[in-house]
Amino acid sequence: MQNVFSRPKLSKIIKADGTVESFDPTKLEQSLMRAGASEFTAERIRTTIEASLGSQAATHEVYKRAFQMLRQDTRAAAARYSLRRALFELGPTGHPFEDFVAKMFEKEGWKVEWRKLIPGKCVTHEVDVYATRNGEFLAAELKYHNDPNYKSDLKIALYVKARFDDIWQCDPVTQTCPVDHGFLVTNTKFTSEAIRYAQCSGIQLLGWDYPKEGNLYDRIVATGLYPITSLTLLKKAEKRLLIDQGIIVCEQLRDSREAMRNISIPSSRIGAILAEVATLCGSTNI
Q1: What span, in angstroms and rounded, lies between the C-alpha atoms of 164 and 151?
Q2: What digits encode the pLDDT tens for the residues 244-263?
Q3: Domain that holds residue 22
Q4: What total number of domains does the chain contain?
Q5: Domain co-membership, 102 together with 218
C-alpha cells in the first residue's frame, strides 16, 4: 500500500524561460560528478533532491539545493558546479569577462593583447582579444550576456564574420596584425543557426557548452583559472569590490591580502579564502 504521506519523486523541471521538461536524474548526477563530486555524493544529493522537492520544481530550486549540499561536502566541487552562474556575476558590463577570457588564453600559452586596434580593408576594428602563439594569430570578439536564457544568434555571427572578413581582406603590404583564426566567444550558448553558419563560413565559436569538447567550461577547468565569483567564501559585495580593483581570477588573490584587508575582510576569513583558492586552483602560500 502506498504511503499517502510520502512525496512523489521529482519528475518535471520548470526552466527559467517557463518551458517544462522531464527531470533527468542521470543528468543531475553527471553534472555533480563533472564538478568533482564522488559518485556516492552525487547519488545522495540526487535522491535527496528528488525526495524533498515534490513532483516538479524550478531549475533554480534544484541548483540551489544541490549547491548547498555539495558545498557542505567539498567547496571546490561546489565552486565548479556554480561556475556558469559565477560568470554571470562578473557583470553587468562585459569588461571583466573580456579580462577573464584574455587571462585564460594567457594561461594556455598565448601572448595576449586586450582591445587591440587592427586595420581592415575598409575600417579599423577594435578586437577584444588578440593573441599569438608559435606563429599562430587569433582575434576574438566576445559577447557577454547577463541573461542565462539568451543565446548568441545568427545576427551576432553575421556581424562578427563581417568584421573578420574586412580584416582578412586588408592589403598584406599594410597589414600589421595578421589573423589566422577569428573567434566568437560567449558565456552562454549559441543558437543552432549560429552554429551552422559558423561551421560553413569559417569562424570559430567558443561558448559555455560549445564545442562538445574543449568548450568554455572545459577550458576553464583545464587551465585551473577560475573567476573570483566562483569562490563560496566571498560575499557578493566583496566580489564586486575586488572586481572593481581589477582582481578577476582566483590566482590574483594569492598576492592580494592587502586588497582584501582594504575592503574590511578580517584576517581569519582571508586565511580561509586563500585555503579555498589553494584547493580550487592549486597550492599557495597561506
Answers
A1: 21
A2: 999 999 999 988 889 999 99
A3: 12-81
A4: 3
A5: yes
